[in-house]
Design brief:
CATH class of the domain at 108-328 in chain B: Mainly Alpha
Helix content of chain A: 25-40%
CATH architecture of the domain at 108-328 in chain B: Orthogonal Bundle
Distance between the termini of chain A: 18 Å
Oligomer: heterodimer
CATH superfamily of the domain at 108-328 in chain B: MetI-like
Largest sheet of chain B: none
Organism (chain B): Cypionkella aquatica
CATH superfamily of the domain at 9-234 in chain A: P-loop containing nucleotide triphosphate hydrolases
Keywords (chain B): Cell membrane, Membrane, Transmembrane, Transmembrane helix, Transport
Strand content of chain A: 15-25%
Largest sheet of chain A: 9 strands, mixed
Pfam family, one (chain B): BPD_transp_1
CATH class of the domain at 9-234 in chain A: Alpha Beta
Subcellular location (chain B): Cell membrane
Largest interface: A-B, 30 and 20 residues
CATH topology of the domain at 108-328 in chain B: MetI-like fold
Structural class of chain B: mainly alpha
Order of helices and strands of chain A: EEEHEEHEHHHHHEHEHEEHHHEEHE
Shape of chain A: globular
Protein name (chain B): ABC transporter substrate-binding protein
Radius of gyration of chain A: 21 Å
Amino acid sequence: MPDRAAPVLDVRGLKTVFRTRGGEIHAVNDVSFHLERGELLGVVGESGSGKSVTMMSLIGLLPSPPAEIRAGSVMLGELDLLKISPEALRRVRGAKVGFIFQDPMTSLNPVFNIGFQIAEPLRRHMGMTKAQAAARAVELLELVGIPDAAKRLGDYPHQFSGGMRQRVMIAIALACDPDVLIADEPTTALDVTIQAQILELVKELRVKLGMAIIWITHDLGVIAAIADRVMVMYGGQIVEQAPVRELFANPQHPYTRALLKTIPSLTGAREARLQVIEGQPPIMTAAPTACAFRARCTHAFARCEVENPQRARIDTMGLSFGHDVACHWATAPKTSEVSNA
Amino acid sequence: MLTFTLRRLLLAIPTLLVISLVIFLLVDLAPGSPMSEIPLTVPPEVRKKMIEALGADQPVMVRYVLWLRQFFWVEPATLIDGWFGTNWAGGEQRILSWQSRAPVFTVIGQRIPQTLTVIGTAYLVGILIALPIGIYSAYRQYSLFDQLGTLFAMIGFSVPTFFSGTLIIIIFAVTLGWFPTKYDTNLSVTDWPSFVKQLQQMAMPVMTLGLANAAVISRYMRSSMLDNMGMDYVRTARAKGLTERVVVLKHVLRNSMIPVVTVIALGIPSIFGGAIITENLFGVNGIGAALIGAIHASDLPMVQTLAFIFAVLIVTFNLIADVLYGLLDPRIRYD
């Protein structure tokens, strides 16, 4: 659970731009957030909202060119990940920051057995010998719930099911006991029962290992199940941020509200069609000068056209729950600006 | 894998039999007479006797069956006799060249070393040049190096060897005078100076063919690398904090080599086939030259035997390529 100590990860003013032939795409626009020790931060938003790009920017996983990180700082402890050398960053990747990707079917190398693939970060970052790494790989596979782990080290990815492969990916990400685990839609490609198993596994591992997790998803149901705090992204910006209960109980941004309405109800009669958010997410060809959501927003007014809203703290009944939102409409009556998240 | 290989080997037998029949009939149908190089002053009845002596007057089916027996029994038996001093062949008639009256396999045995040293080296050099070019071109796609590599490949692809070979002769033999224009087949490598001489006379044919081979293989390597470079597992490898060197030369390369190894294996029969034009251009007295000579002289047994040996090699290396594919890619199981 979050405490008042220094955050394990502190991101400020991150800007990532893709340079394409058709001009620049501003994929991440001035994103600031922090991650407390042991916290699970959910990041939601539709496809193209900049969730994955933001997280990949943190540890230099975006191919450059075309990607270019224009501004910001990413403090991992005392280390600014945007300032250190590529070699130093490689020593952070896989060691202090683990990454799980969306599609377990293609994220493992088909021609190497999984024992080798789990051992790779161990041997690189922890300087283990082959035998030590193999022993640790067995431990890790047992930790992520793969039966008969010792026998399966020599198996190739195609010999595992999707859910099992994702467990292997988690084992790789956890291999070096990272401070931060970034999970980029790790359950999206899995069917629901497997998804539930993986969620249970992550919850369990969190308690056991105590690392901080950033969980990217577009599934609010998943967020409700595991997150401590939620960040809603739209158009490469964070539009709302709050503890999970607060966000579900008291959503402020019209986009968050619309997202929550899109969750179909399993109870009651089929009264109405599924709710959708009309329109497409914007393609940001320039740094935003107006609210990115205005074209799809039912509450948009004149100010939304001329000024990009800044994140401002929201107090509910005079109490602050660490809830902030970037919306002129939501913050119109009584708010105070927050300088940073 | 073993069952697969055995099954394929068994299947190769009928395939090769059919190929041998087709080759035999096709070559036999070709116009020309084994007497075409005999002077016109030789009277017709002598010619007739000579044809009878060669067995060329026999019906094609008789000759085919005889040839089969000679190819599959007499020749291997003679080979074994030569090695172990046994007497399996029992002095039976071997396949004779109509042109030289010598056993076809003796001629092949004389010619194959030239072909293998020159063409084989050219193939090897081609591979050794092509792989790094392909890998680096893909890693730095659209860079200056990649553009130059593409240009190089395009030249190698599109310029025929009779042109590039002639150009190389003009540059390196005529103008610079570094290498001899003609390949000396009689040179035997016994010491350092003769080895240097051998290298010098090999240099130009190897350059000519190496360029053509490297062009093809480097393109395969490049496109295979590019296919794999964008895969998700590459991102995973980077996320593990591996160095670029390990990511590219281990994770990507291992996957990219699968199709390239197949292409390389399938190209090996063409080494034995020799390079007819290049061998003629540089006077390398190899298999390609032997084949052309035999065709000119209507030396049917020679042409048929050589063509069939190429067929055997192609079938064999197809099988080897399939087996290699299975060994390199754990997802492929043939059982």
